[in-house]
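Subject: for your reference before the review

Hello V.,

The reviewers asked for a structural picture of the protein, and I figured it would be easier to keep everything in one thread rather than splitting it across files. Below is the amino acid sequence we used in the manuscript, unchanged from the supplementary table.
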Amino acid sequence: MTEPHAQPAPLPAHRPAIWVHVSTLLNWTRPPVGIIRVEQEYCRWLLQHAETDGLAVRFCEWDRAANTFVEAARERVQAKLAPPAAAQPPAAYQRAAWKTRVKNLLRKAIPLLPAPWVPRLRDTAYRVLHHVLVARARLRSWMARTRVAPDRPVATPAPFGPGDRLVSLGLDWDYLDQKVLYQLKQRHGLRTTLICYDVIPALFPQLVVLPPGGFGAYLVDMAWCADEVLCISHHTRKDCEAVLSRLGAPVPPMHVIHLGSEVHASGEPARAPAGLAVGEGERPFVLFVSTIERRKNHEILYRAWTRLRDQGVVPHRLVFVGMQGWGVTDLLNDMRLDPRTQSDIVLLNHVSDAELDWLYRHAAFTVFPSLYEGWGLPLVESLARGKFCLASSAASLPEAGGPHAEYLDPWDLPAWVDRLGHYMAHPEEVEARNERIRREFRAPSWADTARQIHQVALAAGRGQP
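And here is what came back from the structure prediction:
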């Protein structure tokens, strides 16, 4: 008599999950910028409030070889949420320091050449370097998007199931194939919450390195894939809706969230950065925290400082904190060689949280002359630390800073010269503004930001939250 076949154990019922796409976070090796902070803080909040809405909390990343999502271990995400250590900078920073030493050696060698050769050789070298850096950035972005053919079908099953939701807050134009995401939505009934930080490449393509295929194509794909779109300001929402309408794309429901502004302390006491002279007799300094790139408009400050010097004014020092970005090679060359500002402008990179805290505490005031912003996180962080900011009036910055900052046309050089000179000459007025900021400004928290993101994600595909 044959034994009856054993019945297979029933498969466990699928428990709906909220998936956070963390490819950007897991691949980031530099100090966190705004987009990275948003990913970090939402993940941090989710891990602290897991299982509260009947949804499992899970993480995924984009697998280029399989052309789909794969689950990412929670431990890898948690490791990316720890405050950065103050020890030896990572290898990427060491390579950057090595490049700086090479540049310094070249600058020392140039004066040894015959005098008639110097201007032409220097200009040619910087022009070639600029084009090489731009070409490298575009090639890396193109390779990231085309390593897998865009129309290739999903080769490996994604980990999603019925009722799941996907939240993607990172650099999706580099770390996600939207066409495949659309297939996954159709296959799994996945509900998606995507984000628009700004539409600068569509409005001002001359200020950025464009993604392969153009930013307009990315926005159209995002519009087709998203059940809900997060925008980080009302101005960004208005611009995004206008661009999508102009492109003939659908306009999905859009929800405004405001970014937090607190920085998680690393436990170190505030300390002065090594590259800034401090002590009795040193001039006060004005602080500008931002990646050094064309859109941030460091040039208007350089021009203002030269005007002040030409007027016989001894200005405060100007401290730039941020890594070098795109389109500023000539500007950096001018600042280093201009005898009027060589003792005025200080460039700092790889600044720790403890050093940044010290800079904010001791700055006379801050500046933020950006040509366009989706929100304006450095402005809000300055106000959150009780520091007055002289800012650009462009785009969303007045929305971000409200009545607590002063706003100038980012192109109006005489206005910047006048107001900078005024506040340098009247520290008592700056302190009165600082006192009002400390008394009245209520900084948005990252917990509030994460909670807003989560509310939209839970409602994705079900109408308004």
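For the response letter, the relevant points are probably these. Residues 13 and 161 are 10 Å apart (CA to CA). Residues 118-146 form the longest helix (29 residues).

Happy to draft the paragraph if you're swamped.

O.
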